[in-house]
């Protein structure tokens, strides 16, 4: 089992670090970093004691203990929260801090999935607005691993006993070439980041 007390301590330290360093080496204004359809596949790797890794991922990490060791050694903390919006406003508004950078992201549905617009924002803006995401927050540890020429994002969700693997592509053609890494959950809303962040919230979706 992951040392949750350790990671919770890291979160507290990280928030303090962001606050202290917020005026250093960061943009003074939001900067567009992404504007494109979100093309991805998502796989369940571990949940409540069951290990689902398949194919190349299973060869690299044949057991839960092996992938756990890799995450603990290589992972970076992500703090992620969603701003509350009117139920009729079918957009996700996300705040995220990853590494030493903060981001504000807008996602909305399109015919092939979702469209994503992401801005790099000053860390002080993240800190100022983080409390507005209370009740819709995620804390996870992320590792990046190259598998079959794809960049795989492996996420361990703190307090949720859950590990997922996700691959994003730039085209539908590449999307169809993504290897199976575990139990397919791409279209299962129960495993969307928004739902996991809202879990337990009566207004969650």
Describe the model:
By secondary structure, the chain is α+β, with helices and mostly antiparallel strands. The protein is built from 6 helices and 10 strands; from the N terminus they run αββααββββαβββαβα. The chain has helices at 4-21, 55-60, 64-74, 123-129, 172-175, 193-198; strands at 31-47, 50-51, 76-82, 92-98, 101-110, 113-121, 137-147, 150-157, 162-169, 183-184. It has an 8-stranded antiparallel β-barrel. Strand 5 (101-110) and strand 6 (113-121) form a beta hairpin. The radius of gyration is 17 Å and the shape is globular.
Short description:
The chain has one domain: Hypothetical Protein Pfu-838710-001. 25% of the residues lie in helices and 40% in strands.
Shape: globular
Low-confidence stretches: 201-205
Helix count, per DSSP?
Answer: 6
CATH architecture field: Beta Barrel
Q: Total strand count, please?
A: 10
Can you give the helix content as a percent range?
A: 25-40%
Query: How many structural domains does the protein architecture include?
Result: 1
The strand line-up of the biggest sheet is: 1-6-5-4-3-7-8-9
For the CA atoms, what is the radius of gyration?
17 Å
Task: Please give the oligomerization state of what you see.
Answer: single chain
User: What characterizes the major β-sheet?
Assistant: 8 strands, antiparallel, barrel
């Amino acid at each position: 089992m992951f040392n949750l007390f350790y990671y919770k301590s890291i979160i507290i330290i990280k928030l303090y670090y962001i606050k202290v360093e917020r005026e250093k080496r960061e943009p003074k204004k939001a900067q567009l970093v992404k504007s494109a359809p979100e093309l991805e596949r998502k796989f369940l790797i571990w949940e409540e004691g069951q290990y689902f890794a398949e194919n190349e991922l299973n060869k690299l990490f044949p057991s839960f203990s092996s992938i756990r060791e890799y995450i603990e050694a290589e992972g970076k903390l992500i703090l992620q929260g969603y701003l509350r919006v009117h139920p009729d406003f079918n957009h996700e508004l996300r705040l995220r801090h990853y590494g030493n950078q903060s981001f504000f992201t807008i996602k909305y549905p399109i015919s092939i999935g979702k469209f994503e617009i992401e801005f790099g924002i000053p860390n002080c803006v993240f800190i100022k607005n983080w409390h507005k995401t209370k009740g819709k927050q995620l804390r996870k540890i992320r590792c990046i691993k190259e598998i079959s020429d794809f960049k795989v994002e492996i996420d361990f969700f703190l307090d949720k006993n859950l590990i997922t693997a996700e691959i994003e592509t730039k085209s539908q053609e590449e999307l169809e070439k993504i290897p199976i890494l575990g139990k397919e959950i791409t279209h299962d809303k129960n495993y969307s980041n928004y739902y996991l962040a809202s879990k337990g919230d009566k207004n969650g979706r």
